[in-house]
Amino acid sequence: MERPVGVTILTFVAVLLAFLNGIAMLRFLGFLPFLGPVNIRIFNLWYALLYGLLAYIWAWVAQMLWQVDPQAWLFLAVISVFNLCLAFVVLITGGSWYDVNLSVIVNALVLIYIMLPGVRETFGRD
Question: What pTM does this model have?
Answer without folding.
Answer: 0.76
